[in-house]
Design a protein that fits this description.
The longest helix is centred in the C-terminal third of the chain and has 13 residues. With 98 residues, the chain is an alpha+beta fold. Strand 3 and strand 4 form a beta hairpin. It has a two-stranded antiparallel sheet with strand order 1-2. Strands 3-4 form a two-stranded antiparallel sheet. The protein is elongated and about 70 Å long. It has a domain of 66 residues. Helices cover 19% and strands 20% of the residues. It binds zinc ion (ZN). The site of zinc ion has 8 residues, from helix 2.
Length: 98
């Protein structure tokens, strides 16, 4: 029984024109070499092994980013409380100073 796939990976893929590359997120642990897949933002993408330059030049898809963030914050988080702050009241503690 599959639960919702939480893991995702990023891969630069060319757009249909082939001129513009974008880094989309895909479901799964890592790219397994498949020739095409649908990105998190719902775009069917032709996939190919990206070069280092592709990684460098391809901007991250904002839609994928938004969706992943929404997923993370939308489902009742079991790990992080809403007010996760590591602030430490460090002001005026009389302790130690006399
Ligand atoms: Zn995308």
């Amino acid at each position: 029984m599959d639960t919702v796939e939480r893991q995702h990976y990023w891969l630069p893929v060319p757009s249909r024109t082939g001129f513009q590359w974008h880094r989309h997120a895909f479901r799964g642990k890592h790219w397994d070499g498949r020739p095409a897949d649908t990105s998190v933002c719902g775009k069917p993408c032709a996939m190919a092994k990206p070069s280092e330059l592709d990684w460098f030049q391809a901007p991250t898809c904002p839609d994928c980013t938004e969706l992943l963030i929404t997923e993370q914050s939308g489902t009742g988080s079991a790990e992080q409380p809403d007010t996760a702050s590591t602030e430490q009241p460090d002001t005026g503690s009389p302790e130690g100073e006399r």
